[in-house]
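User: Predict the complex.
Assistant: Input components as received:
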Amino acid sequence: MNLKKKVSIAVVRRLPRYYRYLADLLKMDITRISSKELSMRMGITASQIRQDLNCFGGFGQQGYGYNVELLYNEIGNILGLNNNFQAVILGAGNMGQALANYTNFEKRGFKIIGIFDVNPELIGKKIKDIEIFDIDILDEFVKKNKVDIGMLCVPFEQTPIVAERLARLGVKGLWNFSPMDLKLPYNVVIENVHLSDSLMVLGYRMNEKFKNDK
Amino acid sequence: MNLKKKVSIAVVRRLPRYYRYLADLLKMDITRISSKELSMRMGITASQIRQDLNCFGGFGQQGYGYNVELLYNEIGNILGLNNNFQAVILGAGNMGQALANYTNFEKRGFKIIGIFDVNPELIGKKIKDIEIFDIDILDEFVKKNKVDIGMLCVPFEQTPIVAERLARLGVKGLWNFSPMDLKLPYNVVIENVHLSDSLMVLGYRMNEKFKNDK
């Protein structure tokens, strides 16, 4: 089952969370779950869950609930976790190294195959088994290897320059960690990560929770 | 104007984005904007924008649009960016150091006042002007200083332990970078950052955009 109905980006952004919760249920050998139980675990209303999952054709049965493994696999398919995307990291500073050390990406179908930097002290070193290359050989590397995604961890001012270089080389996706909404006139998908957004949400929630304590 | 109507978390999660876009408009000396123009810039429907901002009492006027500065300041107030929250970073590895180097947080009202680690080679060093302390003095430090938020960048297994220690010490907010949905039986707000969620969304959007190229 793979319905090709257009799904809103708001729903798509919730799918990774469903995926994580379902993975946890599988680990606990829970094979089926009602939208109500899932709702209590996830802190989303049951009706939201039913609506979200209906976008993909449902998977639920009245009185039975959801088959956890089926739903888990379907969401994985929808998210394209079997795509074997290959990525490079641009910038071997703290954020670039943190990403290289993150073990979850490969499990999700994203393999990091190289890191690029300008710093001669870093070039040639490895993080886990990923080599740090001179950014001068980036073009050559991208032409020789399948590179789907560039993870942008370079300094702020460098970000649009490096991003454009990757897009011109035909890289189809950019994951941007610089605090800017990067846009490019190229045929490339850009996902901007704004770390301070989630910090601001934390601050809001703290104010809401503790406003009567002040 | 500060309406205290309960706002859905989905709307709250969009506010930091409005805030960033409005900051950019201010920088460009744009003083007013219609929901339609804002919609085109942000890639959100105009009706979504009107709905979102109506939650807070609107700020828009028919035929005039939004006063950019007013809206910017109000969203800042709603997000509590004038709170002067103080935070500590737990773990001075790559992610902890990346956060310490991030300059945007202080502008948003979050000041980092210390970093804690177990590694004797790091203790006593500084990142920007933030000192790395021995985690042994954490309790003492939290008792002496106003610490509102703990930013959790310790290894996966350590995360719940350190989180509980902070919550017991009365820290009210935890910003968790370990790939787990941390939950604690304490009076504490937890915001879990799942980096791979946004990577999965990138993968989904790439598949959608390029599905006809295959």
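Chain B touches chain A through 56 residues (CB under 8 Å).
Let me know if you want any component modeled separately.
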